[in-house]
From TrEMBL:
Pfam families, per database record: fn3 (PF00041), Ig_3 (PF13927)
Localization terms from the record: Membrane
Keyword Protease (UniProt): no
Organism annotation: Frankliniella occidentalis (Western flower thrips)
The Fibronectin type-III domain, residue ranges: 11-110, 115-213, 217-310, 406-499
Phylogenetic placement of the source organism: Eukaryota, Metazoa, Ecdysozoa, Arthropoda, Hexapoda
Name recorded for this polypeptide: Cell adhesion molecule Dscam2-like
GO CC list: membrane; synapse
Coiled-coil spans in chain: none
Length: 547
């Protein structure tokens, strides 16, 4: 006999559960035996809980549907790579029937949701760093960790550019040694874990330094004759100091001798040395070595050094011209230390145009003709040359000046949208003469509060997710380098897809019998925006509405 005065007497049949993704389980089933319905089936209750949590009660989700069709439902928002127990019950107007047998299923693996922990590094030598870490927190592993990827790149300003080498190394252990690094250099290091589903979240960058080593030789050396008994030896620092230069050592000897007649030291801040008590009857040669705390490096090239045989000495410039890259709004002094007899005439030029007025000789001596450039702006960029001449000869040096400023505004575009994402892309213009260190994306719901997201300096696209559907958003993007943040891009807007729910036809939504009205809520169209809740009002004919 069929009665509608009892709950269903049998459970749903052929319950099957399979992973649909790392956060979804798909449950399918058949209705209970028709003879056990005890009335019309109005829907099903799906219960789920973590496997192994016997004390944990089931979480229940109600699904409204008739008993004439097979069941198919997806549970969303599940924990990744986690086993669940799932049961299904049918219900009618009297309540829920018995549970189906427990079915166990596991969500799929995903990329790790957290970085490796406690990343540490230390220098082994001038060329090697040791790096160690702990695995990600177990609840963030999201699968079986297959290995780790270590990413390192130079962290020093003079090493970093948009094209700086960023190297990646994969391994299965939680420690490694990096080889072939530059001495006394800073390296930015990140580590990420990966599963079969992909790479996880990289750790925050840490900076580690290699040990110092002996320096390379001074890059350029020259000898400038001062008189019949003296000369000035001048040099530029090593191309790679391999640490902090603590001193320079000058060696001078007669050609053919093995023992230097002069061996002097000067502090790292001094790049020239006065050689006295020479004889114009002899020929000399000289070289320079630089030292760090590790010790002296290789000697520079050897240069000839011969005093003037007479009273007249050709104009010579002890200082070196070089390329300078400096921040804007700073000051710089371009050195031009001149020797010669009679005293040379000195002239400064900018891009081959004579500067007016000319700088006056410095207080340190008649030979100092230094040029001060104050409050640098980009308009000051270019070549500056110092020219010295007298009756015996002439000399000149050239400085090339580049002034660094904040980057210009990126060109920002919104390309595609979904119900909860907006795809952005951009092109960076002038980097201001210094490597872009990153971007800051500012965004908000229209008339809402601004939020910010930091983006990698290599990025040119970004998918902004977890947005509200059917909502208008505003965006700006700013680039920054070591000088500072540049101007923001033009304001861009985009609207995520979706709209208000659409009412279902009454024939699909409302099922009425003598004692009950069943509302089939899934029949409403969500218009691409998830339905958050329903408000149900009813009234007896002629009465007030009841909420």
């Amino acid at each position: 006999a069929v009665t509608d005065s009892e709950v269903p007497a049998g459970p749903p049949l052929q319950v099957s559960v399979e992973a649909a993704s790392s956060t979804q389980l798909r449950i399918t089933w058949q209705p209970p035996d028709r003879t056990l319905w005890n009335g019309d089936i109005l829907g099903y209750v799906i219960g789920f809980r973590h496997l192994g949590s016997a004390e944990e009660s089931f979480n229940y989700t109600r699904v409204s549907m008739t008993g004439d069709v097979s069941g198919d439902f997806r549970l969303s928002g599940m924990d990744k790579y986690t086993q669940y127990q799932v049961v299904v019950q049918a219900f009618n107007t009297r309540g829920e029937g018995p549970q189906s047998p427990v079915v166990i299923a596991q969500t799929l693996e995903d990329a790790p949701g957290g970085p490796p922990r406690e990343v540490q590094c230390s220098a082994l030598t001038a060329h090697n760093l040791q790096v160690g870490w702990l695995p990600p927190s177990p609840h963030l592993a999201h699968g079986i960790i297959q290995g780790y990827r270590l990413i390192h790149e130079p962290a020093d300003d003079d090493e970093t550019s948009e094209s700086a080498a960023r190297e990646s190394k994969a391994m299965t252990s939680t420690n490694t040694v990096l080889h072939g690094l530059v001495p006394a250099a800073n390296y930015s290091i990140q580590v990420l874990a990966f599963t079969r589903a992909g790479d996880g979240v990289p750790s925050k960058p840490i900076v580690c330094s290699t040990d110092e080593a002996a320096p390379e030789p001074p890059e350029r050396v020259k000898a400038v004759v001062r008189s019949s008994k003296s000369a000035v030896l001048s040099w530029t620092p090593p191309r790679r100091a391999n640490g902090r230069i603590v001193k320079y050592t000058v060696h001078v000897r007669q050609v053919g001798d093995r023992v230097p007649v002069v061996k002097g030291t000067v502090p790292a801040s001094q790049l020239h040395y006065d050689v006295q008590d020479l004889s114009h009857e002899h020929s000399y040669e000289a070289w320079v070595t630089a030292s760090t705390k590790v010790g002296p490096g290789r000697q520079s090239r050897t240069v000839p050094l011969s005093p003037s045989p007479g009273a007249s000495v050709s104009a010579g410039i002890v200082s070196w011209g070089r390329s300078l890259v400096l921040p804007h709004r700073t000051n710089v002094t371009l050195a031009c230390l001149v020797v010669g007899a009679p005293p040379p005439a000195v002239e400064w030029r900018h891009a081959d145009v004579r500067l007016d007025p000319q700088p006056q000789p410095g207080q340190g001596g008649q030979g100092e003709h230094h040029l001060l450039l104050a409050n640098l702006q980009r308009t000051a960029e270019g070549n500056y040359s110092c020219h010295a001449s007298n009756a015996a000869g002439s000399d000149a040096i050239v400085y090339s000046l580049q002034v660094q400023v904040p980057p210009t505004a990126p060109l920002l575009l919104t390309t595609t949208t979904t119900v909860d994402t907006v795809q952005l892309q951009w092109k960076q213009g002038d980097n201001g003469g210094a490597a872009v260190r990153g971007f800051v994306l500012a965004f908000r719901r229209e008339l809402g509060e601004w939020e910010e997201a930091a983006l990698d300096r290599r990025a040119s696209t970004h998918l902004l997710s977890n947005l509200h559907c059917g909502t208008r958003y505003q965006f700006t993007l700013t680039a920054f380098n070591k000088i500072g943040s540049g101007a923001a891009s033009a304001l861009r807007t985009a609207t995520t897809k979706g709209g208000k729910p659409a009412a279902a036809p009454q024939s699909q939504f409302l099922l009425v019998n003598a004692t009950a009205a069943t509302l089939h809520l899934p029949a409403w169209q969500d218009n691409d925006c998830p339905i958050l809740y329903f408000v149900v009002e009813y009234q007896a004919d002629g009465d007030d509405w009841v909420l």
